[in-house]
Structure formats: C-alpha cells, structure tokens
Amino acid sequence: MTVESRVIIVGGGLAGLCCARVLNEAGVDFLLLEGSDSIGGRIRTDEIDGFLLDRGFQVFLTSYPEAKQVLDYDELELNRFEPGAVVRFAGNFHKLSDPWRQPFSAIGTLFTPIGSLLDKVRMGSLRSLVLQGSLADQFRKTETTTQNALAEAGFSGEMIDRFFRPFLGGIFLERELSTSSRMFNFIFRMFSTGDACLPATGMRAIPLQIASKLPQDKIRTNCRVEDVSDGLVQLEGGEVLSASTVVVATDGATAARLLGVADHKTGVGVTCLYYALNKAPIEDPILVLNGEGKGLINNICFPTRVASGYGPTGRDLASVTVLGSGHDMAEVEHKVRSELEEWFGHEVSEWKHLRTYDIPYALPRQEPPALAEPEREVRVRPGIYVCGDHLDNASIQGAMVSGRRAAEAVIEDLK
Asked: Who contacts 56 (Cβ-Cβ below 8 Å, separation ≥6)?
C-alpha cells in the first residue's frame, strides 16, 4: 500500500470534476477515480451509426451561474432550442412560443387550447415572481410541491395537465409534480433568463472540457471503488490506496453505500429511446410534449434540428423520453413506436431503432422537505467529504456547486 495522493476523489462526474478543478487551482494534490471507462458520470454521449446519443435526454441551460464561471461556452459550440414547446393535444400539435423572446411568434399561442387566456397571463406573473431577488432568495421561499405551487398561482387544471405536467415531467422525471417548489422556482428562473442548448459534440463535451484542464495523470478510469474508510480506498480487485482525505463524489445511493450510512434520498429513473430517420416530422429546433394525458411518451426531441452534428448529413435523430425505468425493453419499444405512428403517421415504421437506455438512477428524488436546506453539509467526518447533486439540487448547477463546496471545505481543513 502506497500513499497515492493527498486527496482521493471517488467519482468522475460533474461534482468530482469540479472538486478536482478547485483543488488543482489551489495546488492541492489529488487523484480522481472513475469506475467506468470514461469520465462524465450521468452525462455521457455514445456514437452509433454516425449519430450522437446522450445517455438520457438532457439539455444545458446557459443561465446556470456556476457553469458561467467554470465553462468556456464558445468552446462548447452551443446550439440553442427555440424557446417554447410544441404540445400534442386532442390529436393535433399546438405551438407555445415564449412571448418575451419571440413576441411575434407568441401571438398564435394566445389562441391555442393549451390553457386559457388567463393561464397565459399568469405565466407572465409567474415569470416576474421567480425573477425577483437573488437566486438564493428563491430557495428561501416556502417549500411545497410543484403541483401545489402551480395551483396556488392560479393555473387551471388544463394548463397544468397539458403543459406543466409533460414539460416539468421531462425535467423532474415525474409527472405527479411532487418535486419541491423550490426546485421549480429555480428551474423556471433558469429557463426564463437563458437558453436551453446542446453542445455541438453532445452533452459529453461538458465534463470533457472540465477534465481537459486537469493533469491527465491524476485521472484514473476503470477504477471501481468497493469501500471507503478513514484514509483508505479499496478498489475492486483488492488494491488499496491511502490518502489523508477522501471525497465521495457519486450519486446519493452509491455514496450512502460507500460511507455506510442510510440512503434517505432515493432516485428517479427514466428510459430514453433513439431512432434514426430520413426527415424529422417537426423541423423546428423545439421540444415536443405529450399533453394528451395518456401513453408512454412524455416528450420528444429531434436533436439534429438543434445541433446538426448529432447525426450524419441528410439524416435526423429522434430522442423519445419515457418516465420510469425497468420496463421490458422490447415491449416499451413496440408501444412507443405505435404511439409515434399515431402522432406522425406510417412513415414511423421506417424509423430505425438505434438504442434504448434504461437509467434507474437519473436524478435524486427531491420531494419536500428535500430542499428545506438548499445546500447540505459536505463534511461527513474528519478526512471524509461528500459531494453530488443530491446535496444541492438535481441539476448541472447543483452538481457543480457541490463539487466546489467540497473542495473549498477540504482546502480550509487542510490549512
């Protein structure tokens, strides 16, 4: 057994990478261990038949404050979604445009059956409300469920069911809208003040950019950690590493197992299916929501319409999100294709199924009182720290902030 570094970071997702970034800038020696074959954690992108498949549909919001400090947006070559959404309801597609960023296109939104005129007026009031004060102020507001918050804001059941349930369902990965209202306030503020984007080379570009600024000999992949104890990290296969400090930068369930504590924050799962097709039936770079209130599909996106590099020239990529995990893969693909044919016609029979991702832990569940304390303690005990979006909020912003907070705590305690 040898002392490999002063600090060992277990986990190469965004939290672990941002922790390493701060330690590196402070001159603190570290070693980052990632159990899989590449860094990124839950943000990974695969290449199949010339298409880029993110492991689960994800978008990057340019308004994340921490990301502005960490990332080079120009280097990511961000491609933005059109603000708003297309909602499938009553057998037709209805476009809802953002009136603040697309005022002329939004005129038609007033006459869609997706909520009443009063609902659309209340959308403006909600936007003003979440933009008041600082971001920290939003996390101090009374915490309830998102469902209750929307009802208290006066939105009709129709607006909640036809728009908010599928839209937020694709973000929170649950349609009951039981997620904390503080998380909703944060997300709605982020969407109101920035763009939803895809990097030119897939979501993987985000963790890869952070990793590229780190000493490459301080990152080890294919190093699965079996146990963490004071000053020691045991790898699968029996190798034991020692360090004065260990930071566990994994998802909540894995962190609980490694640290030997109860896991009170369960995760939510999602299933994502990808198809290759000749031409997208909806050509705008916009999100498509299922407002019908039935079926497996929650939302659809055609990533190649947002960022052309997601597929070969002349071909389109479809990304379909089904909430939950553990589905029978053959059965879910059959049902999803049937729903797609109902939406877009018989041409769907020609779509080539590329891959289905079953992701049991896509996000930590964040029902009240999950964010009663918006930033939870990163110190477990002397020499042991933890970070991850389960300690802040379930977002890229939350993961990045938690990684920085853990590194700052380590640096302070090492003085």
From this structure: 42, 270, 272, 321, 357, 359, 362
